Amino acid sequence: QRDHGNRLSRRHARLKYTVESMGTKRFRREVERRARVSFAPPRPVSFEHQGDRYGWSEGSDGNWHLTLYIENGRIADLPDAPLMTGLRKIAALHRGDFRITPSQNLIVAGVPSQLKNQIEKIARRHGL
Questions:
Q1: Cα–Cα distance, 89 to 126 (Å, whole number)
Q2: How far is CA 96 from CA 22, 63, 91, 111, in A?
Q3: Which helix (H) or strand (E) holds 106?
Q4: How far, in Å, CA of 61 to CA of 38, rounded?
Q5: How far apart are CA 83 and CA 72, in angstroms?
Q6: 128 in helix, strand or coil?
Q7: Is the torsion defined by CA of 68, 74, 75, 77 positive or negative?
Q8: Which CATH number fits domain 55-125: 3.30.530.20, 3.40.50.720, 3.90.480.10, 3.20.20.30?
Q9: Could you report the per-residue pLDDT of 113-127, keeping only the tens digit for each?
């Protein structure tokens, strides 16, 4: 990165752009030469699962994150699932982050343990 990275643009002063400009073969040879190591040949990789894990997960800081399925990424009050109203109630209770995933789902992030049960009840009551 030091010798081959872009110093003119901070935006492009990242390792991924250096690898992109050098190519993986050249980059690999250069790392092997400088580190005096030899890497094993790459192994085939297959991805079995794509998407979000729904439900609660605990963060390293002890806070909780709730991933909610949002059909087609659309939040609206439907007759059988008042999603917008439910999220509004969660937002009034929880002043943390709401994050949209690449799969168009929603993460209620950074929920303290003491709010977890209340948010769970609101989510269930509103079809989230």
A1: 10
A2: 41, 11, 8, 7
A3: strand 106-111
A4: 38
A5: 13
A6: coil
A7: negative
A8: 3.90.480.10
A9: 999 999 999 999 888
Distance between CA atoms of residues 79 and 81, nearest Å: 6
How many residues comprise the chain?
128
Number of Cβ atoms within 10 Å of the Cβ of 89: 18
pLDDT tens per residue across span 7-42: 566 666 788 888 888 899 999 999 999 999 999 998
Q: Which tokens belong to 86?
A: 């439910």
Q: Which residue has the tokens 């605990």?
A: 58
User: Which residue ranges make up each domain of the chain?
Assistant: 1-45, 55-125
**Exposed/middle/buried for residue 90 (C-beta within 10 Å: 0-12, 13-18, 19+):** buried
* Pick from 120, 125, 113, 114: nearest CA to 67: 120
